[in-house]
Amino acid sequence: MLSRLFSDVLPDVQRLAAGGWVEDSASEDSKTKDDCHLREDEMDDSETRASSRADSEMAGDDDDDDDDSLDDDEEEGGGDENDGDKPKKRGPKKRQMTPARAERSKVRRQKANARERTRMHDLNSALDNLRKVVPCYSKTQKLSKIETLRLAKNYIWALGEILRNGKRPDVVSYVQTLCKGLSQPTTNLVAGCLQLNTRNFLTEQCTEPGRFHVPSSPFAAHPYPYPCSRLASPHYQGGSGGLNIRSHAYGPGYEAVYPPGGGSPDYNSPDYEAPHSPPVCHNGGLSNRPGQDSDTDRNYHYSMHYSGLTTARAPAPHNLPFGPPGARIGGAHSENIPPFHDVHTHHDRAPPYEDLNAFFHN
DNA sequence: TAGGCCATCTGGTCCT
DNA sequence: AGGACCAGATGGCCTA
């Protein structure tokens, strides 16, 4: 069984690796593959059923020829035994299903199914690749397809805004942008990514009220002071957890937080078509006390992908698109990144970010 | 148990 | 004819 599994998985992995991405999710796919085997077994059953259907369609054909031309000739004039009491149908006649034709049809269908499977696997691989470059990635808890696409769209839009505005957005508006149109769980997920980093900042680095310095996040991969009045506001429960982001659609008491002018994307822009997701709010249920709950731990499986801005190929750590323009930016602090077994650091990304980095470096 | 997500099968359509 | 693409149907798995 295992060898069968590997023999099936390996070609896929090799194919995907040849496509430019090294897939390391063979084990992850094992279940699916196994399932696939089961389904193939089922397919055998269905094929059997299909065959029996075909056989039933073949009722009355006793010539049993294997020749196509013969089939065609046959259908030109054949099958009229019962036409006496039935109105003649117009259009192309339904071909009589000979065993040979049924066999060919079956093989064709099997090949089509295999192609369709491959196509969908390729599509899923592309989606996996996309998951790796959007700002929240986990091997263990993957974003759904639709959420991946939405988040990717938001991410692109946010990056575009950064380029258009020429200034770094604050963390909250950035999260707002990313979470537009996302489901609440995904919103929490993205928020969790940020929360993780802000908590580290708060517990380890923050020494000055109202100053925001994130050590191990994309926001924080570089120690520069990041003023964020919101985080220092009464709404901010940073001392006990970090950003609390939640939709007020989940009940009263959740205060929407919007950046006070500037830096915030124009969600009404025609460029932005996402359905309006619940606004990103404070006061919500994401207030993780250090070491408090399992959700907190789960959030640790995620990393903000802006950490990718500090890739080895990126010129320097002053590539962070956040914080005050012109802020002094120090060295990278990848060593501050906690040892998440699941964390994705995007060292394999570079060119677009180098552009961005260069932009913010100037 | 309902709902969400997913993989797969299948038939239709379009294109080469 | 055959392949690519698509959408509907179906059933399994998982979670709240």
From TrEMBL:
Basic residues bias locations: 87-96
TM ranges: none
An MF annotation (GO) of this entry: E-box binding
Bias kind Basic and acidic residues: ranges: 28-56
Subunit structure: Efficient DNA binding requires dimerization with another bHLH protein.
Protein name according to UniProt: Neuronal differentiation 2
GO biological process: axon development; positive regulation of transcription by RNA polymerase II; sensory organ development
Keyword vocabulary terms for this entry: Developmental protein, Differentiation, DNA-binding, Neurogenesis, Nucleus, Transcription, Transcription regulation
UniProt keyword Transcription present: yes
Biased amino acid composition, Acidic residues: 58-83
Domain BHLH, residue spans: 107-159
Region described as Disordered: 17-116, 261-297, 330-349
Gene3D superfamilies (UniProt xref): Helix-loop-helix DNA-binding domain
Recorded name of the encoding gene: NEUROD2
GO cellular component: nucleus
Organism expressing this protein natively: Gadus morhua
PROSITE patterns per UniProt: BHLH
